[in-house]
């Protein structure tokens, strides 16, 4: 995940929200070289990258959190299992992704990766398929991603 976050002066702490609806949990094992979690680093609005995994309960566990520059709602990235698939949209972790505005759609599960259209995308995915959207635009209320590069992941 990479998106704008407002980091409070005391840090992000054990739990924070990114993209309005994704709750991220940190642990003592979360790598935090920039001090965003414990508050020893910068605060304010910034682009934050979260690396981690979704556990069996659907909880996002961060293995790494780092600062990636100024907030940029037009350069977000989100990767995870998809659900609520209704052409032309699907959700990743509660954030709706619009394929109608996609810059490109690739299937990385084949070699070499294939450029595909939205119809082929929806024929190849199902609930739980890992998908990444990058170089995309995020808007709030409700959380929505447009204009990105979409990839079906291995």
List the helices and strands and how they pair.
Layout (H helix, E strand, L loop, with lengths): L1 E6 L7 E4 L3 E4 L18 E11 L5 E8 L8 E11 L2 E4 L2 E4 L5 E4 L6 E2 L2 H7 L5 E10 L4 E3 L2 E4 L2
Protein model, in words:
The chain is mainly beta and 154 residues long. It folds into two domains: 66 residues, no CATH class; 77 residues, OB fold (Dihydrolipoamide Acetyltransferase, E2P), CATH 2.40.50. The strands form two sheets. Strands 1-4-5-3-2 form a five-stranded mixed β-sheet, with no helix packed on it. Strands 6-7-8-12-11 form a five-stranded mixed barrel. The radius of gyration is 16 Å and the shape is elongated. 27% of the residues are buried. The mean pLDDT is 97.
Explain briefly what this protein structure is.
This protein has about 150 residues and is mainly beta.
The tally of helices reads 1
Q: Into which percentage range does the β-strand content fall?
A: over 45%
Q: Helix coverage percent of residues?
A: under 10%
Gyration radius, rounded: 16 Å
Element string (H = helix, E = strand): EEEEEEEEEEHEEE
Q: How many structural domains does the protein architecture include?
A: 2
Q: What is the arithmetic mean of pLDDT?
A: 97
Write down the overall geometry.
elongated
Strand order of the largest sheet: 1-4-5-3-2
Task: Give the key terms.
single chain; 154 residues; mainly beta; OB fold (Dihydrolipoamide Acetyltransferase, E2P); 13 strands
């Amino acid at each position: 995940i990479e998106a704008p976050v407002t980091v409070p002066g005391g840090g992000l702490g054990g739990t924070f929200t990114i993209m309005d609806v994704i709750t991220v949990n940190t642990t003592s094992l979360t790598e935090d070289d920039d001090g965003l979690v414990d508050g020893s680093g910068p605060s304010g609005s910034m682009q934050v990258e979260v690396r981690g995994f979704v556990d069996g309960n659907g909880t996002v566990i961060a293995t790494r959190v780092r600062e990636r520059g100024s907030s940029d709602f037009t350069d977000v990235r989100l990767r995870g299992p998809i659900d609520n698939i209704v052409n032309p949209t699907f959700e990743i972790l509660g954030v709706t992704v619009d394929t109608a505005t996609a810059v490109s759609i690739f299937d990385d599960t084949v070699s070499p990766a294939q450029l595909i259209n939205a119809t082929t995308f929806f024929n190849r995915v199902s609930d739980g398929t890992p998908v990444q959207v990058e170089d995309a635009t995020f808007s709030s209320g409700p959380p929505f991603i447009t204009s990105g590069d979409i990839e079906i992941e291995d």
